[in-house]
Amino acid sequence: MSGSRTGVQPMTADEALAWLRQVDGELYRTPRGGGARGAWVAVVRTPHGGARAPRWIVALGESLEEATMTAARQWREQLGAAGPLH
User: Which domain CATH number covers 35?
Assistant: First the structure.
């Protein structure tokens, strides 16, 4: 994923998978059943920083790109809230 991405621009599938590998994230797809569309779930730990213990980010989407973009946005928000890393 390009360093210039702000979370507003779409992420390609390759970028999404690369970002998930970079942050040790996981990607899941719910089973389709009964005519329902499957959903994608991206799961990552919040960035390490400060005295706060890491938490989980669970982001849903209709595509792997959407789920990963949502997780990445929340991850960046948490990184900014953690303050400078020492």
Answer: 3.30.160
- What distance in Å separates the CA atoms of residue 56 and residue 44, rounded to the nearest whole number? 6
Whole-model pTM: value is 0.76
Look at residue 6 and tell me if it is in a domain: no
Element (H, E) at 45: strand 40-45
What secondary structure letter does DSSP report for 76? H
**For residue 21, what are the domain limits?**
13-81
Contact 3, 22 (CB under 8 A): no
| Stated length of the chain | 86
The answer to whether residue 7 sits within a structural domain is no
Per residue in 29-72, pLDDT (tens digit) is 988 777 677 899 999 999 876 667 789 999 999 999 999 999 99
Domain tally, the chain: 1
8 A C-beta contact, residue 66 and residue 41? no
